[in-house]
User: What shape does this take?
Amino acid sequence: MKLGLRVLILLLLCGSIAHAQRRGYVIFSGKIIDVENKAPIVGASVFFSGSSAGGTTDSLGQFTVTIAARSYQVIARSLGYKFKTFKLDLSKNTQTTIELERAEQLLGEVVITAEKADANVNRAMMGVEKMSSKTLKKLPTLMGEADVIRSILLLPGVSTVGEGASGFNVRGGNVDQNLVLLDGVPLFNTSHLFGFFTGFNADMVQDLSLYKGGIPSMYGGRASSVLDVRVKEGDFEKWSLQGGVGPISSRILVDGPLVKGKTSLIVGARGSISDFYMQYFPNPSLAKSKADFYDVNFKLTHRFGKNQRISLSGYASNDGFKFAQDTLYSWNTKALSFKHNALIKGDISHNFTAFYSDYTYGIEGQKSGLEFLWKPSIIQTSIKEELSKDLGSYGRLDLGAEVSAFTNDAGSFLPNSSSSKIDKFAMSTEHTREMAAYVGHSLPLGKKLSLDYGLRYASYQLLGPGDFYQYKLGTPREINTITDTLSAALNEVVATYGGFEPRLSLAIKLDTSFSIKIGFNRMQQFRHLLSNTMAVSPSDIWKNSNQQIPPQIADQYSIGFFKNFTNASNAVFETSAEFYYKNLNNVVDYVDGAQLYLNPTVETQLLVGKGLAYGAEFFLKKSRGKRLTGWISYTYARTFRTIQANENQKEANFGIQFPANFDTPHTFKFVLNNRWTNRISFNANFTYTTGRPITYPNGRYKIYSFNDLYDYAVKTGIFPRPGLDQTSYTYNGTKYTYLTSKEIKELLDGYSTASFTLRNAERIPDYIRLDVGITIDPKPGKRWQGSWNFSIYNLLGRQNAYSVYFRSSSGEINQAKTYQLSVLGAAIPSITYNFKF
Amino acid sequence: MRHLLLIFGALFLLSSCETEIEDFQTQNLSSAIVVYGEISNVDGPYNVRLNYVSAYSPYDATQFTGQPITDANVRIVDGNGKETAYYEKSKGYYLSPAGFKGEVGQKYKLRIKLLDGKTIESAFQTITASPTLAEFTYSFKDAAKVEDMRFPLTASIKDPKATEDYYFVKRQDFRQFLLTCPPPPAPPAPVPPCNCVCWQAPQNTQPYLLDDFLLSGKNLSLDLGQLPYEDFTDWVVQLDVYSISKEAHTYWKRLEDQRKLSGGIFDKVPAQIRGNLTCSTDPSQEVLGFFMVGGLTQKRLQVDRFNGIPTEAYQKLVFYVDFNNIRRKDIPLWNCKDAAFIKYNLGYSLPPL
Assistant: This one.
């Protein structure tokens, strides 16, 4: 910790000294806003003729550039706006406001990025993907739902276990190793309807950034990736209403000024309508079933002058799933956050965030006489301060600190009616505290080099009150190796972990369109999702690191080559090849047949091992063009786990390395956006993936525990014996039945089951899917803006295997059969109408 | 997960589907030895079967028996060190000697020496007290149509308080059936005797697994379902209720979980399930199966489907039996014991309990 603070102070001093040394330079700062509604434009760029200096607007639409004092031709531009150029004499510090006009009628759209064309080459970081809300809505959809997580699955290096599985996997990381931030608030479950849809409304999304590698030091807490989703602000000038009606859900979004020019509000809500028509299904079980969800977002923003604002945001989502009168699964998230942003002295950006989030999940049993309720939850309360100082030609310095408190309730099992026979089973509530401080510096080193480096220190404490078990050392953890129970008092520290997380990205620009980058980052994770099923389920529990379960640590090394091409018509082609190697330490695995629910000694079911992931991602993107934009990517990626025996645990898979459930070596993705006219565009995406690993049987056996009858029959001599069987034939339309001789000889049968071999040694068939869609944008200039989206998901109607599995039926004859399951194994058309006025 | 898929199938135009793969072939066939045996406090003889794992492919009765392991030395060892040798009744099928019976409170283990010198052993387990059935009854549920008339079965185990208890239940049904006698020969030929009532015993390999987690000291219900009313003959349901160890319960639970995989996203990742047997002389020799030790209670319930039935329901049944040719009028038989077209036809009498 001491070393971290020293480095942090040193970096701060370096930044300040460097800044003070600048002579002959002026500060040019200002704001870029929309000419129509005066809303700040985030991510807009400012360039200067004859200078390599430039700036990008922050979340307040503000920018600051330190530049040599002289006259310039200034160019301001942003995605979806006409660029603006003007002459400016910069002999002293200057502030200005630049207004940009929307360019909706113009052809030429950018598919994936809101960044300037050469950002991929220029920035030091790699493994970063950005997507605007506009791109999100242009992609073909499933059942008309523009969807954040389905969209990022089209990016290289992002995969999923299968159709409908919750979450996503990035570069060999588990689902719980992704930090998903919705306006700065981490989400513990990102799905609706298990995993078919994303848990938040795409209409509310301003843009999103996915960090697969090169993760800035401001992010931490999860081991593999960061998906940072920013939510829109309300309009400060006029009210508008927009919405959409689709086959699965309907949406509405209202935004406008509460106080013109000062206070704005945006509220979005989405709800499923599946329960409405499910009641009309002829199948009585389906008619009594339930599969509904909703989510609501709001954001209230108030400006204090030009350089300061506060905002209050809320998010609530809920899912309920029940089949007939069986069991109700539910999961919901409630989050409230407060932010204060300010620009201090023209070049220091201050962002303060405080939030509270509550993720509650669980099961409600509704069987008569056995009604129960099980509702675990995680409550997080955090405060975070981030400072960013523009150092002119010395780049940008970022500093920050955050403190979080977590309450992780493992969920007591409770009777849920007066007639329930169920006894109460109490589970513990764990309390943890996390603190982190970081520093990051983006430093241009001349024209050829740029460096992004940072250091984060994260500290974790597991606190009392509670009972914590001590296990006998030198023997595998089991319930009968508990040696002692530590009863900790309130706030007593039970376990402590912490460590530095260095982050480094270096770009070497060989020319203006070609760069080579190298990077390293370390991430730590103190909270783990326990799931020993194929895909994570909403009832999977989160477990804090404790004395037995150390934090997961991921070290990623990467190198990338980035080259852009521009053709005669100024269409830009971005190409890249990125290679990564990732070591995962302390990954969590499970003993065979692990019992994870309602287990106060769940650590006896957990194993700790190593993970390894490596791969290569090749990417070709046409990011700008009059009509055709899109990308093609090929990814080769492998990810493995090794769980070896040691003095505290047994091994898994005989200690032999095995592929992770989501190890898919070859992935080919293709996304196309073709604008046919000003209003009509065609979209398509194609995905090919190697089938995921699976464990196949290496035999079958029977347990003859049900053979008493057979033994009796053989002993008494009633088997075998002569008998008569029925035979029939049909003549002239008449069926004739008669008896023939047949020996009555029964089968020796038993309980049949499969013998399995090494874990994940085989693969299911490859996955291929093509989606297409047509979007008709609204007529420009009209007050009521209606747009249509027609999509066909899985146009080829291919029955992609979700899994291959082996089942023995019981009953009169035990048959061992092999099945392939396909989810969404047909072409699924949908039509969605969106409106805005 | 099957529920989830059914709902999504409905929502997404029935787009989820399950396809049987008929040509799946096992790779790298396992060489594991399968051992299964039981011992209880009910009179023997108890059996132990030894065989190898067979290939995994569609059902073929001759193939799936697995190669029997013959000429093994099979012994039961009790807690006092007393050994009882089994004898090989048929290939791979070993029986305890007459008069040998397990005792409540005594612990037992299985020890097997194969011809090739390998020794397979289980851990000691104790026979606990036989469980008690709190209720085992039936009722009649009338309906407008015979197809909807039912005999709901009710059964529960009386769980002792203050102990952690696990139960394993086998169920065997015996259904009495009636066939049609041929018309008597023309007089004066004597009318031969006609036996038209026999018992059928459909084989059932589905165990019930129960435990008293959160229900200690209460009656644990067994979900036995309902019997149909397709004839007015008797129906007997036999329950073999074992009180078993937690380890045995976990073993069966894992087998059940794995056997019922639906391929869904919340299926557990399949894995080899090992029981309580190991090869002590060659740890690399995989041994599957289990040696189960438990207190046993056996009980039969006779469901009378003739007496006490409302007249109107009975008359509907008579018509139903005739209309659906339940008695097989088209193939009359003098002796129902000869009916090979009735599966698991036991003949005239039930096995003794």
About this structure: The helical segments of chain B are 2-11, 61-64, 246-259, 311-323. Chain B is about 10% helix and 35% strand.
